[in-house]
Amino acid sequence: MSVYNVIEPIADKVPILISVPHCGTEFPQEIKSGYNEDLIKAPDDTDWFVDKLYDFAPEMGITMITANYSRWVIDLNRDPESEPLYDDGRIITDLCPTTTFAGEPIYKDGHMPGGKEIERRLKEYYWPYYAQVEKMLSHLKSEYGKVLFWDAHSIRQYVPLIRDEVFPDLILGDNKGRAAHKTLISTALDALSAKRLKLEHNYPFKGGHLTRYFGRPDENQHALQLEMSKINYMDNKESNYDEERAGHIRVLLQENFKMLIETLNTL
Q1: How far apart are the first and last CA of the chain?
Q2: What pLDDT is recorded for position 91?
Q3: Which of 41, 131, 160, 267 has the fewest CB atoms within 10 Å, i.e. is most exposed?
Q4: Angle at which helices 182-192 and 243-264 cross, to 10°
Q5: CA distance 224 to 18
Q6: How are beta strands 16-20 and 221-229 bridged, if at all?
């Protein structure tokens, strides 16, 4: 199985790439037997249905890349050297997680990955995703002179091991202004503020490793991360896709990208 899927636009192409690195649910056959079988049937830390939520993108000329493998294989949004993304004491799962967000062990005894196995997973599953993103961003930038990388995520409304209160509805991250041009940041904030949703900026998330790695505004390559609470597009148990809730979010996201496309044309 490929590490990723690429979805090409079906309308006139625009210089935006949407990445969905945590929607994957597959496990490579060579390591699958080492996991807790019950947990991997439906890996709870998946950003469920985010790829479906954004599936309007090709009709807007936007390219997409989505991950096939679960973040429990290797987390594409973590530092490859396992450097912490935050220094405020919060609990963040590892590059190759060994527990769920709820603290449950995901491996059988004796099957947690060691250094050599982590290096293998970096080579086989992590860097190919980065290489493909780099390739697509380079092509878009060479064609349009600028490009926006949009990293799409979701999280349960309440994850006590990460935060002792519910998450905001939407969190826009730009590494505290270092990952994107200020005009693009302002455009996204204005667009996402249009509904009666609680929107935060760079708190409690300021963008993960993908946003920080690909955000190079001085090279006309910009990056933004949007984290959202799953309750906004899933049912009350955050288990199933809710068409009505998702419909409202999709309208908001479409308006956001419409405004971002217009702003990119002025940069």
Answers
A1: 39
A2: 59
A3: 41
A4: 150
A5: 10
A6: unpaired
CA-closest candidate to residue 37, choices 102, 104, 107? 107
- Residue found by looking up tokens 């006590």 in the block: 160
Q: What whole-number distance in Å separates Cα of residue 238 and Cα of residue 48?
A: 9
Q: What is the pLDDT of residue 88?
A: 60
Which single residue is written with the structure tokens 């080492």? 34
Phi-psi region of 175 (alpha: psi -120 to 50; beta: other; left: phi over 0): left
**Taking Cα atoms as reference points, which of 148, 191, 149, 198 lies closest to residue 171?**
198
Q: pTM surpassing 0.90?
A: yes
Ramachandran area for residue 177 (φ above 0: left; ψ -120 to 50: alpha; else beta): left
What are the start-end ranges of the H helices in the chain? 29-32, 37-40, 50-53, 115-121, 127-144, 182-192, 209-214, 243-264
Beta strand pairing call for 4-7 and 63-67? antiparallel
Q: What are the tens digits of pLDDT across the range 67-112?
A: 999 999 999 999 998 776 756 655 577 899 999 988 899 999 999 9
Q: Where are the beta strands (DSSP E) in the chain?
A: 4-7, 16-20, 63-67, 147-155, 170-173, 199-201, 221-229
The rounded Cα 259 to chain-centroid distance in angstroms is 21
Please give the structure tokens belonging to residue 103: 């603290």
Q: How far is CA 161 from the centre of its chain?
A: 20
Of the candidates 230, 258, 255, which has an alpha carbon nearest to the alpha carbon of residue 245?
Answer: 230
Ranges of residues in the chain whose predicted pLDDT is under 50: none
Q: What is the pLDDT of residue 264?
A: 97
Q: List the beta bridge partners of residue 68.
A: none
- Tokens 């594409």 correspond to what residue? 76
Structural domains present in the chain: 4-264 (3.40.630.40)
